[in-house]
Structures are given as structure tokens and as C-alpha cells.
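Entry: Purine-binding chemotaxis protein CheW
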Amino acid sequence: MCTGRYVVFMLGTEEFGLEITCAKEIIRIPEQITKMPNMPSFFEGVINLRDNIIPVIDLKKRFGYAETHRYADNRLLILDLENTLLGVIVDDVEEVLMLDSRSIEKIKFDIPGMSENSIHGIAKHDDRLIVLLNALKIKDEIFQYMEH
């Protein structure tokens, strides 16, 4: 992994990051999210954003955090992952950070409920630890999960 820019967002009290190249835009959560039958609990539904039907997931639910309550700070992070759009509900978008590869450590243990390589590593920035996610692996994991 090399030096790069990451969009940093909150899930509960924890900070997570995704490479900025994956982030298409950040919007308020639409009032209308159309539910779909027989989907996993983390799948919130779909939205129509400028004539694009976009699946929406709640990352807190997917990662096993407590139920998300909607607040004014909640945002929908629209990701463009290999020409597939995915909406990800996050508690708040904090900032865009430039992180040097030397500040990122690979994790050396398995995380229950997450596929291998879903996490790039942990970034140390000032006195903070930021979990850096591999958006493409998470997309593959989510779509595979929804197919079953």
C-alpha cells in the first residue's frame, strides 16, 4: 500500500477510512429508501440518485455494531467500485487525510465476520487509530452475501 488520500468517517465512536478514489460523493441520507424483500438486515434498500438505482447498506449493522439511529450528521457515502455504485450509511464524514504508507500497519489477526483482506490495515495518525477498509473486497463480500 502506498501513500494516498483517504476519506475518514465514523461508525459509532470508531474511525474508518476508504481510499478517496472510491468515493464518488457524500450526500444526506434520502428520506425514501425502498426496501427489498428477503435481504440481510444490513441491506437498507435501494435509492434512485439521478436515474441510478443504488443499493444502500448500513456498515454499522454489517460490522455488528448497535442499531443505527438516524441523526442530522448521518451521511450516505456513494462509492464507485469498478463501475458498481454502492451507498454506505455512516454516522458522520470527518475529513480527507493524506496518509503515508509508513503510518499503516497490516493487521495480523482474523476478524470474525469479515473476509480476508477486507481491511487494508490500521493507520496511526497523530494519537488516532483509523481502520482502513478495502472497499472492493467489502463490495464483493456484500454482493456475495446478498446472493445467498
